[in-house]
Specification:
Layout lengths: L2 E4 L1 H13 L6 E9 L2 E10 L13 H14 L2 E9 L8 H6 L6 E6 L6 E8 L2 E9 L6
Parallel strand pairs: 1-3, 1-7, 4-5
Antiparallel strand pairs: 2-3, 2-4, 5-6, 6-7
């Protein structure tokens, strides 16, 4: 099973982005490197949610293109995306599952439903959801 690692500072940036976007969902892309079948997130891209909805999100195509260009410039691979759930648990909704188009992508969901934010990672292939191992806090010294 794929293991995903993310820096504590990037996790905190995602939480700040999600809180700033309340009551709506926020979203972004994750990029990094694949090492021995595991994903190492090296950069997150905080994007806007044109839908401005607490129940779903979409990614602005122009922002997505700029992020992909930056990934290429930095030699990073696109690893997937993240979005927040302002008031529901950190698990894919039926809409998240329906819209999961890339079986290689990691789908990270940050829940703000509880006092402590919860981030989980998933693989979604043909409607089947598998939780991936997520480690937060590696390489926290910048």
């Amino acid at each position: 099973m794929m293991r995903i690692t993310i820096k504590q500072s990037d996790f905190e940036l995602m939480v700040s982005h999600a809180k700033a976007g309340l009551p709506n969902e926020v979203c972004g892309l994750i990029a990094g490197k694949l090492e021995d079948g595991d994903a190492v997130i090296e950069k997150i891209y905080l994007l806007s949610n044109p839908d401005q909805s607490p129940e779903h999100f979409s990614i602005d195509p122009a922002e997505q293109l700029e992020a992909i260009k930056d990934m290429r410039k930095l030699g990073l691979a696109p690893l997937g995306n993240f979005h927040s759930h302002p008031s529901t648990p950190s698990r894919p909704s039926q809409e998240d599952i329906r819209l999961a188009y890339d079986p290689k992508a990691s789908y990270l969901i940050l829940s703000l439903a509880e006092k402590t934010p919860v981030l989980k990672a998933f693989e979604i292939v043909d409607g089947a959801v598998t939780q991936r191992i997520l480690e937060i806090g590696w390489n926290t010294v910048s």
